Amino acid sequence: MELHKILVKIVLAFSVVFLLIPLPLTVGIVFSPETTPTFPPPGFSLKWVNKFIQEEVFINAFRVSLILAAVVVSISVVTGLLTSYGMVRYNFRGKDFLNMLFFMPLIVPAVVTGSALLFLLRGILGIYISFFNLTIAHVILTIPFSIRAIAATLSGFDITLEESAKVLGSSGLRAFRRITLPMIKPGIIAASVFAFVISLDEVTASVFLSRSDALILPVVLLTFMREQVDPTFAAASIFLILIYTILIFIISKTIGLSVFIGLLEKRTR
Amino acid sequence: MAMRRFSNTGRLKAIFSFQKLKFMVFFPVFIIMGFFIVSLAMMGELSFYRHLVGLQIEKAFTLENYILIFTEPAYQRVMIVTLRVALLATLIALGLGYPLSFWIVRAKPSKTRSFVIVAVTISFLISFLIRLYSWIVLLGYYGTINNLFSLLGMSRVILLYNEAAVTIALGQWGAVFAVLFLIGPLQNIDPTLEDAAKTLGSDPVRTFIRVTLPLSLPGVIGVFSALFAWNVASFVTPMIVGGGVVTLIANFIYERFMFTLNYPLGAAMAFVLLTYTLAIWYGVNYFTSKKMPARLTVGGR
User: Which domain holds residue A86?
Assistant: First the structure.
């Protein structure tokens, strides 16, 4: 084998290892009986998973996080659907400006969005309901993805299909429900998955807004990670990996992973 | 006859109201964007106020927050460290992501290839915090690498809580991103161009440097600017892997808003960060292609 081919193989192997480091490490830690995180684990135990389930802080945070994610997904997808319908179907002045505006939450750093919302919602408007504030923040952060994913499928869809349904006597809403909606299903599924994953994983903006009345999982995890008492919080990874696996399974069964990656294009952390 | 006329005017009315009502589709998004834009505007105003004590602020118009940020050596250092870490992490990400992405695009379908694609997708979706925790496990004082050192008879060293660790952790995240988002641009390169270069006597390395790399440059620059902009704003990685020792701009803002309660200074730093991000995001693209990248736009293509 030529030298450069071996070199290429080494570089590739290195990047694969580097990319995939996190996964086995965390899974190993969760099932390790030791208090100080070590890898490879010296044994196998479900101690931390048990402790995680019994610890009320984590379970409550998990529940709040899932409810929040569900609320965020519904608002974000409905808003995204309406907006992308307007953006794709209507022609009007200032469309380019709106495009840029709807993309802004992706560019503006989450720490800026979080602190600005903290100042506006708590400081000026005096809204002390953390769940409401978090919903606003997460919808802002997920809306670019919802619009993008749905608009991508909507603009690739043949409008004459919807028009012929109308010509054949179907009402506008009925045509939309029976023809357009099934056609843009991939976009809606992708948008829901994005919104769900982002909401479940968002730390930076949430840390400003999540207070004791609505502590969400990522914020609790961050706090415990900084304290580093024991690896209990890492057990959350098992449940999260489970959720992600289910999501990946849903995606591959409904729209296919490659379509999903195509619709993904941009995602922030 | 009367019926028909009635239904016609009804339809006319419906069309007329529809023309006005159809823009109601933007109503929800405007409410959401309203919160976003107004909050940013309020922050802008806040950054010109004067901080007194605690949560008290004086509604003045002063530039002293911005002057302080750019003259105080400790604050200057925060900005320099941030830019250095972000740039290096972006280069690491591209250096590792590019070859892997190229391989995914060019390799024949095989089990290894499918495995790599699925693995990259999973690590892309996996929780950001979990990803970070693994660095503590790997680099910690009793972590894998230190255990290896002590097995080999060397003394344990502190690998975490420094700039290098933050840079590597950010680079790892970026590499996953780079692999996925370089696939598109690399797929668009016609492999026959490379074949042509090879037929004309060019060796593979030269072909890559003279043909493939220049053709993929627009995609690379796009990923570079996105990653660089996001790395500049990184917050959780320096907090966990940097352990409070490495303070980047975002951590500085967080401390002002949550602990020292110097809101105006935090707001000013937030606007400095926003300026950097916008400059990187749009500036890099502007100077290389002289136009906005097409993929930033939505719909109406």
Answer: 56-264
CB pairs < 8 Å spanning A and B: 281
To the nearest whole angstrom, how far is the Cα of A226 from the nearest Cα of chain B? 6
Reported ipTM: the value is 0.88
Domain membership of residue B299 (yes or no) is no
Closest by Cβ to A257, choosing from B121, B132, B273: B121
- Cis peptide bond N-terminal to B191, omega within 30: no
In CATH, what number is assigned to the domain containing residue A133?
Answer: 1.10.3720.10
Class of residue B5 by CB neighbours under 10 A (exposed 0-12, middle 13-18, buried 19+)? exposed
- A242: nearest Cα among A74, A52, A71, A106: A52
Mean pLDDT of A207-224: 93
Specify if B279 maps to a domain: yes
Read off φ and ψ for residue B145, nearest 5 degrees: -65, -40
Torsion of CA A142, A256, B121, B289, to 10 degrees: -70
Prediction pTM value: 0.86
59-88 in chain B: CB under 8 A from chain A: none
- State the total domains in chain A: 1
| DSSP 8-state class, residue B260 | I
Is B53 a domain residue?
A: no
**pLDDT tens-digit readout, A66-77:** 999 999 999 999
